[in-house]
Amino acid sequence: MRIAVIGSGYVGLPTACGLASFGNEVTCIDNNEDKLKVLRSGIIPLYEEGLQELYESVKDKLTFTGDMSSVKNAELIILAVGTPMSDDGSANLQYIYQATEDIKPYLQSGSIVATKSTVPIGTNDEIERIINRTDITVVSMPEFLREGYALYDFFNPDRIIIGTDNVAVYEKLRNLYVPHIPAEKIIRTNRHSAELIKYASNAFLATKIHFINEISDLCEQIDADVADVAAGMGLDSRIGRKFLNAGIGYGGSCFPKDTNALEYMANKNGVKLSLVSSTIKGNYERRFNIAERVNKYIARIGETARVAALGLAFKNGTDDIRYSPAIDIIKNIKHNQIYAYDPRAMDNARKELGANVIFTDTLKDCVKDADIIVILTEWPDFKELENMNFEKETIILDYRNILDEAVMRAKSNVIYKRIGQKI
Ligand code: UDX
Ligand code: UDX
User: Ligand 1, atom 5: nearest CA belongs to which residue?
Assistant: First the structure.
């Protein structure tokens, strides 16, 4: 099939490369000329494990352009432009509607417009109204990619949701994925349900994370261990162990945006989603509570304390710092000098953080002579600390619970603290 993907971002690019690897001809359209130039030079301008290699293996099937009229050759047009959060919490749909207006004059008869960007319920109805042609089918096909695992999730999806009442179009889209993806994983529903499945899934995952973070706070007061509690809970197959890692709260370009958009949509329809609302509020406040914990440790040592912050990305496996709790925490650590290191996200973080933050090229340089080391992103690289010796008393705040507890507690000069244990 000839496909056009509008938006070459964290979702558009893995989708384009994945579909090209199935043998489709894919045109990637983007309005960012700088990004197009980098892409045409053969470089993927974002970090996603394996994407550069996949891109190199399919690049003869990919075209990059800023010219919207190139959708005229496509049977399927996938919308994957940004739907960022507006100040009032609603999804900003200007880019989706702009892209719809841009492609409208060039759509060939019988083509399918599939919205992969996360959009509020009813958005695809509006896209259909804008296009206003009965020979074009508008479909909701939400993405479920996790950053850092986008290719894994593309090739091994738990489900592909196709929101359309047009069975023939559903079958055409199903054949795009089968046999690469088992047919039983490709589900048809109506557009509104498809749009809501995306929001409800992300909001539930975000709520699950916030739940374990609140349980973690209780563990700290009653001398329980949240890692053991999560393990015990997770053995119940109805709960499952995933997304029960207590930490500093969720971030990223999806959970914060999607929980707020869902709350906004529900309020607009007179429905109170109390769990989502308390998750949004509690998750946001958590990052300031964590910063306060670090400030208390600094106060004990004084302003000569050397503080090392490990992790800037909102999670491991990505260079993305959108709504990263690590960034907000560092911004709220009251100290004149903080050393920071992240394997991938430092270039993005430089624009966000102040002059009191010194970026180091290596983990070792960051933690050298540190009085306090705080782990803010769950990068496996930070397990290097397990192999280090500390010449002076060092407080290690493992706020992602990623280090081997026995190893760290056996180290001399180390005061090791985890999330969700007696303070
Ligand atoms: C986006 C949405 O934010 C997310 O809700 C949805 O689930 C998937 O699409 P992401 O890929 O992370 O996620 O967005 P981003 O990385 O910002 O990429 C969007 C791309 O679209 C950028 O390359 C941007 O240049 C491009 N774009 C944006 C256009 O081509 N035209 C526009 O009008 C706006
Ligand atoms: C999420 C959804 O997982 C994905 O299905 C959807 O398509 C897009 O949004 P993503 O935002 O890339 O993916 O990252 P995810 O792995 O879900 O993590 C989100 C945040 O939650 C990160 O800040 C991560 O550090 C945090 N997290 C995750 C926890 O704090 N604890 C956990 O147990 C899991």
Answer: 118
How far apart are the C-alpha atoms of 207 and 204, rounded to whole Å? 5
> In 3-state terms, what secondary structure has residue 79?
strand
SS3 209: helix
Name the β-bridge partners of 373: 308, 396
Angle, vertex CA 34, rays to CA 29 and CA 40, nearest 5: 60
Adjacent-strand bridge partners of 372: 307, 395
Q: Which residues does a 6 A CB cutoff place in the pocket of ligand 1?
A: 6-12, 30-32, 35, 80-84, 95, 98-99, 117-118, 143, 253
Catalytic residue chosen out of the listed positions 17, 28, 219, 254: 254
Q: Tell me the CA–centroid distance for residue 131 and ligand 2, in Å.
A: 34
d(CA 197, CA 187): 11
Q: How would you write the pLDDT of the chain (423 residues) with one tens digit per residue?
A: 999 999 999 999 999 999 999 999 999 999 999 999 999 999 998 889 999 999 999 999 999 999 999 999 999 999 999 999 999 989 999 999 999 999 999 999 999 999 999 999 999 999 999 999 999 999 999 999 998 899 999 999 999 999 999 999 999 999 999 999 999 999 999 999 999 999 999 999 999 999 999 999 999 999 999 999 999 999 999 999 999 999 999 999 999 999 999 999 999 999 999 999 999 999 999 999 999 999 999 999 999 999 999 999 999 999 999 999 999 999 999 999 999 999 999 999 999 998 899 999 999 999 999 999 999 999 999 999 999 999 999 999 999 999 999 999 999 999 999 999 998
Taking CA 183 as the corner, what is the angle to CA 178 and CA 189, rounded to the nearest 5 degrees?
115
- Give start and end residues of each alpha helix (H) in 186-254: 191-222, 226-234
Bridge partners (DSSP) of residue 359 are: 340
DSSP 373: E
Q: Is 254 a known active-site residue?
A: yes
Strand 76-79 with 112-115, pairing:
parallel
